[in-house]
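pinging the channel bc i need a second pair of eyes. not urgent but kinda urgent?? the chain im working w is below, pasted from the shared doc
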Amino acid sequence: MNDNIDSNNATSIPYEFSNTEKITRSIFSPINVKKDDTLRNNAFTTPPNKDEVSVNRLNYTTPNFIKKISKFISNPQAGRNYYGIGVIDVKEIYESNSDIVYTPNKVTINKITIDNKFHSDIKIGFVKEVGKPLPMKYAYKVEQMVQKARFYKDKNPNSNYWESGSLI
């Protein structure tokens, strides 16, 4: 699968983040959204045994690539239907007493690999155990990010292109 059509600026991505940089989070239904299309806290909760929330650096790619990777990692059989994109500024991550690190990666599903040069991880400073909730201090960090994030529901999820307005 060739992702180079959306890889503008990929060779010049700095490891440092600007406070005004836009960060995107893939949003899936029904697991990440409530019935009123607002985000659940799990949209920014770290998975068990890790301190990393996978996100992408919008300033260095396009909404089309973000949608492409989001659809690629969706898993409808597990309740992960691609639904839209969440956007948060780096400054808002820092204001939530969390951090972000640049972690480019490759994603392979069913023998197809996408090179994701825009991938980063939000770090809340805690590794959650399987089956246990986050301690209040860390749950509050997640809640702060969810409140600050802007959610953009994809009006045409079956399309290969982002057609639902500007991500700001």
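so The chain has one domain: 4-153. and Strands lie at 22-30, 53-57, 80-89, 99-102, 105-109, 112-116, 119-123, 150-153. — does that match what u expected or am i reading it wrong
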